[in-house]
Amino acid sequence: MAKQLNLGIIGFGFMGQTHAETIKGLDYANLKAVCDTNEAQFVYAPDGVATYVSADELLADETIDTVIIAVPNLLHLKMVVKSAKAHKDIICEKPLAMNSEEVKEMMAVTKEENVRFTIHHQRRWDHDYRVAKEVYDQKLVGDIYTIKSSLYGFNGNMHDWHIYPELGGGMLYDWGVHLIDQILWMIPTKLQTVYADVRNVINEKVDDYFNIQLYFENGINAQIELGTYFLNSSENWFERHWFIGGNEGSAKIDGFNPKGEITRTSELLGNVPGQITMTHAGPTRSFGPAPEGRILTEALPEVDVSHRMFFDNYYAAVSGKEELTIQPEEILRLMQVVEAIRTSAKYHQSIHFE
Ligand SMILES: NC(=O)c1ccc[n+]([C@@H]2O[C@H](COP(=O)([O-])OP(=O)(O)OC[C@H]3O[C@@H](n4cnc5c(N)ncnc54)[C@H](O)[C@@H]3O)[C@@H](O)[C@H]2O)c1
User: Fold this and answer.
1) pLDDT per position as a tens digit, 202-253
2) Which residues fall within 8 angstroms of residue 248, CB to CB, at 6 or more apart?
3) Number of domains into which the chain is organized
4) pTM for the full model?
5) Which domain holds residue 244?
6) Do residues 67 and 214 both lie within one domain?
7) How many angstroms separate the alpha carbon of residue 69 from the centre of ligand 1?
8) Which residues form the Gfo/Idh/MocA-like oxidoreductase N-terminal domain (predicted)?
9) Same domain membership, residue 39 and residue 112
10) Which H helix or E strand runs over 105?
């Protein structure tokens, strides 16, 4: 098949190099050039790929149609504006910008210059997330009332520019935007209120813990919790969990390569009249054990998914076969949710959103 995507990467650090690795596996894409102000990064550039020390040089390279922007967050706006003016299509890393005003600026310039513009929220193609989304879409636990998405780990470590707020550091911008985007894409209704606790547990300047509650118009309460300082003695400890509660069952999904099950009862539980169980504290019925045989388990749904599907969708969009899965308007809303989260945490108040 003829190569049809000609890509250049601006910012060749951790994520830029991850993109280069992914592109190697795509039979419809060519990596033409990479750019980094730190020439030491070029030892990781694949053979035959041009290297530039400035974005302007890369943008002047006429063999490139699409740029991937993977510089620190503070620089995204500047790079998006430059790239649009150089008439390159753009894939920008998350978080797209430092705030929603910057996103609006990006949307205006990309529209004006008529360039394609999307954001690398590849965690919409995470395996655990797609299993959870399947449970949601197929109503596998009935009418859902609660969803909990949590991520813990790495013993408090934050590094490099991630520890400076002025460069776009902190966990809300790092993992937060992924976890929030997943929930917003899963639950396509109005988001009514936002309540959040955001903390600096061991990092003085940037957030390293958050607990966010999103209440949606369809009655679902989604909770997102992230902690970088949930200590554990195992090496490389990183925990990912989902819990989804519905009126016909519960789904438990653990790990990025998920294990878990759907649990339901053999008949819908209702209020049972009659017999009252006495405890030393008086009569009780709450949290009683289910009668034998009442609890049934089922396997989680199977999904076939991988991060390269972000690029498959991009290529399909370039070829006119699909819409881009990730639209700037959605990411503007995401950024506005992040702002509501910060306001809620600052004043310890619930924020009316939509
Ligand atoms: N989608 C994801 O899962 C994911 C994962 C990690 C990082 N990211 C995002 O990718 C971006 C980069 O993060 P990272 O972890 O790779 O950081 P990094 O520090 O490893 O890499 C950034 C690179 O940009 C270079 N750079 C800085 N200023 C530059 C400039 N003016 N011109 C050209 N190059 C410049 C630096 O020298 C560095 O090599 C961030 O926006 C981050 O949020 C996304």
Assistant:
1) 888 999 999 999 999 999 999 999 999 888 888 777 899 999 999 999 999 9
2) 141, 142, 143, 264, 268
3) 2
4) 0.94
5) 124-304+336-352
6) no
7) 8
8) 6-120
9) yes
10) helix 100-112
